[in-house]
Known about the structure:
The chain is α+β, with helices and mostly antiparallel strands. It has three helices and ten strands. The chain has one domain (34-191). The strands form three sheets. Strands 2, 3, 7, 9 and 10 form a five-stranded antiparallel beta sheet that branches. A hairpin with a 6-residue loop joins strand 5 (131-136) and strand 6. Helix 2 packs across helix 3 (163-181).
Amino acid sequence: xxxxxxxxxxxxxxxxxxxxxxxxxxxxxxxxxxxxxxxxxxxxxxxxxxxxxxxxxxxxxxxxxxxxxxxxxxxxxxxxxxxxxxxxxxxxxxxxxxxxxxxxxxxxxxxxxxxxxxxxxxxxxxxxxxxxxxxxxxxxxxxxxxxxxxxxxxxxxxxxxxxxxxxxxxxxxxxxxxxxxxxxxxxxxxxx
Length: 192
């Protein structure tokens, strides 16, 4: 009788994972993606030049930038779990791969400081400003190269879910980070 009850519980857990269910059964997948960070996920430490200050929204330490990124991802995952109807009990995740470095973000309108090696923000007025490119070259007009970072979230769920359910969760995380935090994704979220 015990094994029948255990088997029935396992069927209910898998059946509740999401429909229509497709793909592999996974319990602890990793989500990996490439992105350009919002300004709040970056920091700038002044190098003694009074005219070069952190861009509005930038923090002044790597720890604060990383904390902002982790809090945004935590909030996006909690939101995604709620949207797909899962309890957050029994879930955990580890964020790795993103190590903010001190960068000087300068608007294109600042013709004095917008030089090679500085970073380009999206236009002001958006919900969250994103640092999407780095200026290249040694003289104007400067080229721009995409500012690409990578991040991995290792998720531990309380049970197995079909890959389609993990895709639903990843889509909610993707949307939340894009809309609420201004993350610019250079790739989709890969589930492994």
